[in-house]
């Protein structure tokens, strides 16, 4: 994407005032975003974004500049701008650049630009028709289609020089059900690190019907009572609680500054023995998976909590300096406009030995959260508040009536300690995670779990 000699000149300019590390990140991204409503394509946005980010370290200081000017003059200007923030006494020599071939561990069959838009529209129409015809109370269906191809090149003063092609595809289905002045919404948004073959192999009927079924089911839901109950959280996107309330606390961005409850606690018990918590960017074709991170480090499986013991953190290159620990291949960013920092990929609770049927049967009274909704988290403390999109009462070991207006209120690290059953049905859910280095694709996951007690906020007046 840039010649070797130009890369070397840019890195040299970035180090010209005494920096001890320099990096160039080049990105060329192609995106398609379509929206279908009322059976018609309402929006069709296709774009290209190209730019270069240049980063310089000196000790525990980091400076970043970016530009969309890829001429030699433009790149050297950006490099010098980053360098001007540093005033050091020692000039280092660049290590010889060695181009490394990256093995693609997420195979792709159909590149987005090779597929006609009519085939993409057909996927959306099928999802729309399926959801719309699920039940007469479905009044509106919105389908969003996204695919992108991101080509990156990363080079640094330590001799690293790698290139990578990332393909991602996602379909988001939202259904609205209306009856007797009541309105409820259901949503499902599967995605993968794949090309168009993802849509061809996707079980459209399942996801479309589920979005519609949630909306229709919740029309008949009773108000959720408030109190402290055992809570069963189902698999897939149920893992969003621990992603938000625990996962972010295991990122070096927080740990290195001692802004996490998990800081300085390696080797300590932070969860029951039945809980193992993993971040794994190597899972084949999963939405949050990577070949390399945005600092050029290979994807890997990082076990963060093993049998309840805190065993690791997610560490990027800059925070590895602060912590005196090696990078874990966790440096990620939204685009060239952001400097990378430690971020999750596919983060999940490993499967246990209990079946979902056993977990429900062993719960005398409580709440079953089938699908989670949105929420808020204080990353420093882990305090959270999450809505439940679809919930049911649990009574005498059986699922009861659907409940609406349910929220879960608690503290992530404390909730982690109260997990007393872990299912064997691991599933992953696709989402977007926003943080210091922008919004990035991640998977959250878990099998069904039971937490012995969570504060449940119910519908007002109940």
Question: Your description of this structure?
Answer:
It is a single chain. The chain has 462 residues and is an alpha+beta fold. It has helices at 4-14, 72-83, 117-132, 197-201, 204-219, 240-247, 252-255, 317-323, 356-361, 412-417; strands at residues 21-37, 40-58, 61-67, 98-100, 138-156, 160-179, 182-188, 191-192, 222-223, 227-233, 277-280, 301-306, 309-310, 331-332, 341-342, 346-349, 365-377, 383-395, 398-404, 407-411, 419-422, 427-435, 438-446, 449-457. The strands form four sheets. Strands 1, 2, 3, 4, 5, 6, 7 and 8 form an eight-stranded mixed β-sheet that branches.
Please supply descriptive tags for the structure shown above.
462 residues, alpha+beta, PmbA/TldD fold, 2 domains, eight-stranded mixed sheet, six-stranded mixed sheet, 10 helices, 24 strands, globular, TldD/PmbA_N, metallopeptidase activity
Secondary structure class reads alpha+beta
The shape is globular
Domains (count): 2
Q: For the residues shown, what is the average pLDDT?
A: 95
Rg value: 24 Å
- How many strands, what sense, and barrel or not for the largest sheet? 8 strands, mixed
Beta content comes to 35-45%
Q: How many beta strands in the DSSP annotation?
A: 24
How many helices in DSSP terms? 10
The low-confidence parts are: none
**Percentage of residues assigned to helices:** 10-25%
Termini separation comes to 61 Å
Give the helix/strand layout.
Elements: H1 4-14, E1 21-37, E2 40-58, E3 61-67, H2 72-83, E4 98-100, H3 117-132, E5 138-156, E6 160-179, E7 182-188, E8 191-192, H4 197-201, H5 204-219, E9 222-223, E10 227-233, H6 240-247, H7 252-255, E11 277-280, E12 301-306, E13 309-310, H8 317-323, E14 331-332, E15 341-342, E16 346-349, H9 356-361, E17 365-377, E18 383-395, E19 398-404, E20 407-411, H10 412-417, E21 419-422, E22 427-435, E23 438-446, E24 449-457
Helix pairs in contact: 1-2, 3-5
Domain Metalloprotease TldD/E central: 112-219
Organism: Neobacillus mesonae
Pfam family, one: PmbA_TldD_2nd
């Amino acid at each position: 994407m840039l010649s070797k000699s130009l890369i070397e000149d840019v890195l040299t300019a970035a180090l010209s005032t005494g920096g001890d590390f320099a990096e160039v990140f080049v990105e060329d991204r192609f995106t398609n975003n379509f929206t279908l409503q009322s059976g018609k394509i309402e929006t069709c946005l296709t774009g290209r974004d190209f730019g270069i980010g240049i980063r310089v370290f000196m000790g525990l200081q980091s400076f970043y500049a970016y530009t969309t000017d890829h001429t030699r003059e433009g790149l050297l200007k950006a490099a010098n701008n980053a360098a001007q923030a540093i005033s050091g006494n020692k000039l280092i020599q660049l290590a010889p650049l060695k181009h490394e071939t990256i093995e693609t561990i997420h195979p792709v069959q159909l590149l987005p630009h090779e597929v006609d838009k009519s085939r993409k529209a057909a996927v959306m129409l099928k999802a729309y028709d399926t959801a719309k015809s699920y039940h007469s109370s479905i009044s509106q269906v919105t389908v969003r289609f996204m695919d992108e191809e991101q080509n990156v090149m990363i080079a640094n003063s330590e001799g690293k020089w790698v290139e990578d092609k990332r393909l991602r595809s996602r379909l988001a289905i939202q259904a609205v059900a209306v009856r007797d002045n009541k309105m409820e919404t259901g949503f499902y948004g599967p995605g993968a690190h794949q090309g168009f073959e993802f849509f061809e192999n996707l079980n459209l009927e399942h996801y479309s019907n589920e979005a519609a079924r949630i909306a229709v089911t919740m029309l008949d839901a009773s108000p959720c009572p408030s109190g402290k109950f055992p809570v069963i959280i189902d698999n897939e996107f149920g893992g969003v609680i621990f992603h938000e309330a625990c996962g972010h606390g295991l990122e070096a961005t927080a740990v290195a500054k001692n802004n996490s409850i998990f800081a300085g606690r390696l080797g300590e018990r932070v969860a029951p023995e039945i809980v193992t918590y993993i971040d794994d960017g190597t899972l084949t074709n999963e939405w949050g998976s990577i070949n390399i991170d945005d600092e050029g480090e290979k994807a890997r499986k990082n076990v963060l909590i093993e049998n309840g013991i805190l065993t690791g953190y997610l560490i990027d290159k800059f925070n590895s300096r602060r912590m005196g620990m090696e990078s874990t291949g966790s440096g990620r960013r939204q685009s060239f406009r952001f400097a990378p920092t430690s971020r999750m990929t596919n983060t999940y609770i490993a499967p246990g030995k209990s079946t979902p049927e056993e977990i429900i049967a062993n719960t005398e009274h409580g709440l079953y959260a089938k699908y989670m909704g949105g929420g808020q988290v204080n990353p420093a403390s882990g305090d959270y508040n999450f809505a439940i999109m679809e919930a049911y009462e649990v009574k005498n070991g059986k699922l009861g009536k659907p409940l609406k207006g349910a929220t879960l209120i608690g503290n992530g690290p404390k909730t982690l300690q109260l997990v007393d059953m872990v299912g064997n049905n691991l599933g992953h859910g696709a989402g977007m995670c926003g943080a210091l280095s922008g919004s990035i694709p991640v998977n959250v996951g878990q099998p069904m779990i039971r937490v012995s007690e969570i504060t449940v906020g119910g519908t007002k007046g109940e």
